[in-house]
Specification:
heterodimer, A: 126 residues, mainly alpha, 3-stranded mixed sheet, 6 helices, 9% strand, B: mainly alpha
Chain lengths: 126, 253
Amino acid sequence: MSKKIRLLLVVTLCFYTACVSPVRRNSFLDAQYRLVKSSKVSPHTPSQVVKTYQTFISASLGSDCPMYPSCSRYAQLVTSKCGHLEGVLMSSARLQMEFDAQIIGFPIILINRKILYEDIPYRCHF
Amino acid sequence: MKIFLIVAIFNLFILQVLSSENNCLISKQYYVKGVEYFQQRSFLLSAINLSNAQIFACQAKERNEISYRYSLALKELNEPGLAIQELNKLVKQAPEVERKARLTLAVWGVSMEGLDNLEIKKISNLQLMQNNKLLNPESFEEGEREFVTRWNNVHRKNAWISGIASAIVPGSGQVYNGNYQSAGVSFVLNAILLATSINFFDKDIKAAAITSSLFFSVTYLGNIISAVRSTHMFNATQGGALVEEYQNNILNR
């Protein structure tokens, strides 16, 4: 199959899947409020591990998490709330979901002209 | 002296009337703003404005209506305890909004006290919809059959299928859900880690083999969890509008 046809196929598939799931828009203020209420640790003060990762590793990798809260903060919040096992598993699951966050149907929030997808860990699953 | 006192009392009375008229206007302005923010889904700002409207409300009827809307905003902010508290107060003290408050408590799954048989039936149907179950058209009235057909025809995916597919081939559950990028990432990540673990085991480098196996187990289980979670979210998104429509129908909104 030629490159153009392959590209067209990918674009059509992405458009189709994007059209399938209607997306809800939430307010950033509400998302911050819900995050603060649902967290045992302060969501505005990252732990040393998360701070080190964000300062050195994340910056050098150039990664830009499209989720709110960011994946490193999410890992810290879930670990503190639900334990290490669930923290590790849920963080791994989230890393594998974030590429299709809009198709999956996470609500969107707008921060400084940037679209982020809200995924606050309200409760523990295990 | 007497005239002075009479004039002073009369002036104080006029001031009270004027300031209470001002309060009513302020309350109305906060209420309008609060409702506007609620419709824009900015529930924190809505709750703040409605709470201010409550303070300045001059009639009990208005205050009760504002309280009801305030409780709706609190529920959206993930404060169900406070929201239920507000509604319970309204059920006891506010006859004008008592029916609405009871229906809202039933819709939230708190209690079906004080509802008639038809309302209880509607709430039970709503609970079935919230659990993503199919509805039986015979338990609905004639006029609602079309709604039932729409609900039963909603495109759903089975979480068991996506979970088992992801367990067999990492990424296939995500393909079933239509999440192709996530599927690609899951497949590649799990394939690399599995291949690395097998390679290290073959070369008898035990420490590295165990480490990469641990990483593989985390990404493998994470892949299954992400497939199941995205199926649940897909189902919630597809049927969400109909659930909201039925809920608004029950609450006459």
